[in-house]
Amino acid sequence: MSDAKTSAYWQQQAAQLQLEGQPFINGQSVASLSGAELQTTNPADGSPGFSFADCGAEDVDAAVSVARQAYQKGWQDMGPTQRKALLHAFADAIQANGETLALCDSLDMGKPISAALGEVGAAAGFIRYYAEALDKIYNGHTVPTGNGAMELQMLRPRGVVGAITPWNFPMINVALKAGPALAAGNTLVIKPSELSQRSALQMAHLAVEAGIPPGVFNVVTGAGQTGAELVRHGGVDMLTFTGSTRTGKALLTAIGGSTIKPVLLECGGKSPEIIFADMANSDLDQIATQVARGAFWNQGQVCVARTRLLVHESLYSSLEEKIVAQAAQMQVGNPLDPATMFGPLASAHQQQVVEDYIQSGVEQNATLLLDGRNPIGGETGCYVGPTVFNNVDPDSRIAREEIFGPVLSLFSFPSDEQALALANDTDYGLAATVWTRDIVRANQFAMRLKAGKVRIVASPAQAEGAGFSHSAEPCGQSGYGVEGGISGLQSYMRQQSIELALGG
Ligand code: ADP
Question: Structure pTM?
Answer without folding.
Answer: 0.96
